[in-house]
Write a structure and sequence with these properties.
The protein is mainly alpha-helical and 277 residues long. It has 4 domains: 39 residues; 54 residues, no CATH class; 43 residues, no CATH class; 78 residues. The radius of gyration is 30 Å and the shape is flat. The longest helix has 46 residues. Helix 1 packs across helix 2 and helix 2 packs across helix 3. One of its GO terms (molecular function) is DNA binding. Pfam families: HTH_Tnp_Tc5. This is HTH CENPB-type domain-containing protein.
């Protein structure tokens, strides 16, 4: 953690604010510390993400998820399609090299071979059912399974049954379930208790990960919770809220783009059928 970040954390927990003393203690610039603490200046990494990047980190992650979803459907997007997706989300033009740079940044999450052209025969062969059939055949040929008669199976089964169902094992299982001796706390102690409906929102404020598919009620609770909290925890809540809203906005734009394509497909199909009639 940089010195300026340590100084900001110290100011959040201190009872009184003394910029000069804090800057001297953590060996950082007093003016920068004051402007950062008062919200007049951003950290360099936040400023770069906000002003230089076409998409925020959360929006890029949502775009990666959408690309993977399309690829699992068997319709991996091309680089030009990725560029259109990004422009729909950002509402601004992106450069012609942006899609390639985006794929390179997320090459560990996106298989770049999806964007290579490959013939229809290869595409048909590249599916999960054919892979599964191959490995099932390979397993059946290499495991060396032998046929057993019922008599031979019973001899093996009875030996295993006698070895496992001992009085000690049976007594231990009764004890672990709290039935004998009767002790409900054995089971109840393993059950998490939710005191109120706000527990899901409150427990999620430990980090700034975006909520997944939040409802309107969850968003309202999150906003109310952020407003009511102190300045120490509201920073994390604010980041969580911002990333959640960014994620929602990206999802809406991608769905709008997908719906537009579906509507155009339906219109073309209707025209084709009318010409056929």
């Amino acid at each position: 953690m940089a010195a300026i970040d340590k100084a900001l954390e110290f100011l959040k927990t201190s009872g009184s604010i003394n910029y000069a003393a804090t800057a001297k203690k953590f060996k950082c610039d007093e003016t920068t510390l004051r402007r950062r603490h008062q919200g007049k200046q951003r950290a360099r990494r936040d400023a770069d993400s906000l002003y230089k990047s076409r998409l925020s980190k959360q929006q890029e992650q949502d775009l990666v998820t959408y690309i993977r979803k399309l690829s699992l459907r068997g319709i991996p997007p091309t680089l030009s399609m990725i560029r259109n997706f990004a422009q729909d989300i950002a509402k601004i033009e992106v450069g012609k090299n942006w899609p390639y740079s985006f794929v390179q940044r997320h090459r560990n999450e996106i298989d770049c071979t999806w964007f290579d052209g490959f013939d229809i025969a290869r595409r048909r062969a590249d599916n999960a059912s054919r892979y599964r059939a191959y490995f099932d055949l390979w397993t059946s040929k290499t495991q060396g399974l032998t046929g057993l008669s019922k008599r031979e199976f019973w001899v093996l089964f009875w030996g295993a049954l006698e070895a496992s169902f001992t009085p000690e094992n049976i007594a231990n299982e009764w004890r672990r379930t709290g039935l004998k001796p009767f002790d409900p706390d054995v089971v109840l102690s393993q059950v998490s208790k939710n005191t109120d409906d706000d527990s899901d929102v409150e427990s999620g404020l430990d980090d700034s990960i975006a909520l997944q598919e939040p409802t309107a009620r969850e968003l309202r609770r999150l906003v109310d919770h952020v407003v009511k909290q102190s300045s120490v925890s509201s920073d994390t809540g604010a980041r969580k809220l911002k990333r959640t809203l960014e994620s929602l906005q990206a999802e809406v734009e991608l769905l709008r783009h997908e719906n537009q394509g579906l509507r155009e497909t339906i219109i073309r199909e209707k025209k084709r059928r009318q010409r056929g009639v």
